[in-house]
Design brief:
Oligomer: single chain
Order of helices and strands: HHHHHH
Shape: elongated
Number of strands: 0
Number of helices: 6
Largest sheet: none
Distance between the termini: 80 Å
Structural class: mainly alpha
Helix content: over 70%
């Protein structure tokens, strides 16, 4: 059964006073701000996303400088990894002291010691 056409069209006009218009504008602004800020808050809450952003920042900021300094110094990535590993082992005491004296990292390091994780690092 088809719908019959309307006989008349009614127009409804809502008029707001200044105070109501201001309240509505504030509400719309807060909803828009929430829509924009919510994805950023989710990224800040997610450690893997923050780690990815931090690595991307370091790669963009310092990548070309590091690449220029390492150019021609190593034959392959394994050689670089072995060199970094050797440097960590040679400077174990200095690195460990730095980690222990940093407030948050020190707490994490002490928890790691309880479970034997620190032996795997050094």
């Amino acid at each position: 059964m088809s719908k019959r056409k309307p006989d008349q069209v009614n127009e409804i006009v809502i008029r707001l006073q200044d105070k109501e218009r201001q309240i509505l504008d504030d509400y719309i602004m807060s909803k828009n701000l929430n829509l924009v800020s919510e994805p950023f808050v989710e990224i800040l809450k997610d450690i893997s996303a923050m780690t990815t952003l931090a690595i991307a920042y370091v790669a963009i900021r310092y990548g070309p400088k590091i690449a220029a300094q390492l150019k021609g110094k190593y034959e392959d990535i394994l050689e670089l990894i072995l060199d970094v590993e050797g440097t960590l082992k040679r400077n174990k005491d200095i690195i460990e002291l730095g980690i222990r004296t940093t407030p948050i990292a020190g707490d994490i390091f002490r928890i790691g010691e309880l479970f034997g994780f620190t032996e795997r690092v050094f």
